[in-house]
Amino acid sequence: MGKAQKDILTTADTARLLGVSVRTAQLLIEGGSIPSWKTPGGHRRVYRADIEALIEGRPPATPLPSATAVVLASADRLPCYELLFAGMGECTAELFTDTHAALLAIGAIRPCAVLVDLADADPLRLAFLQSVLADPLLGHSRILAVADGPVAGADGQGRVIRSGTPEQAVAALRRSLADAGPVTVPTGTAFPIALNEGQRLAALERTGLLDTAPEEAFDRVTWLAAQALGAPISLLTLLTPTRQWFKSRFGLDLPETPRSWAFCNYTILQKAVFSVEDLASDPRFADNPAVAGEPGLRFYAGTPILDNEGFAVGSLCVIDYRPRVLQEHEAQALLALAALASTEVRLRVTERRLRDALRRAERPAGARGGAAATGPGMAVSHRAGHRP
Question: Cα–Cα distance between 162 and 30 in angstroms, integer?
């Protein structure tokens, strides 16, 4: 069972966790005391985090900022969206042609945005858009529609960002994802950053990986990357506002570099493999101290490491002292290994959240606010076997 599935509960699961009957759980869910969403088959689903919040007497958990969008379009338009999102540093896209699959994804990942392509006026996608607008749990999500004219019956009281082309829609989404406050990276930097760099840095902080000891799971990945690509150097990097810190390194003694030296600044702004055949011949990197001076680096290839919400917290990369051309099988190997490293990062984040939840659960009842209020005059008992 995947992570998303473990975080989603049925009504029966909810009843067991709360120690109430299924009927009571149904009443709480249908009455809105427990936030929920519907599957395409009409079954209610609940987020585990919201039940944990209810048990502890806290308000339902506020969704963490996400960097994942759900895109629903016809099969002939999906390649266009795949290409557009591949070069977008602020967001990762899950692409669908099937409305049911898209709805399930929305329930599992709480996307930052939902983009529906209505260029062919498909009635199923229009109904999908209307259902998305009616879902109160998507109040934090941007809703975008690609259509030649007004979207009948789905204006969403101004919520829908309408565009005429996929390019316009993705550009509008990118602008909407920009950080609300000032960018936390020092001004005057020579490297590019995403518009939501502040959110990415917050996601990096949530991993808890910065300045931690070496771990075998990550060291295996960098070793494998070096062997698979025949490279003398392989790194798993994490990018802070000012540093490129190496969670794992093979073939390099330095524990970190200034962020301005990081080739990975470009890697985290796209989704595939970013490679440079000869760093000394590329005007973006020719003056880099690690290229112009010692150790005289020449070849680079890297791909992003993504956290639970789709933010690129760093990268997996290989480096060589000689120019070379990245082969297709090498690119595929790097992508596969980066996926393994991303899974390890997500496990660390999940473990931290679980430890935090356990610490809260171990506090005295008075410190947690006592029984969880679920509505006027109603409280949930957590004793096993309790029935209304």
Answer: 32
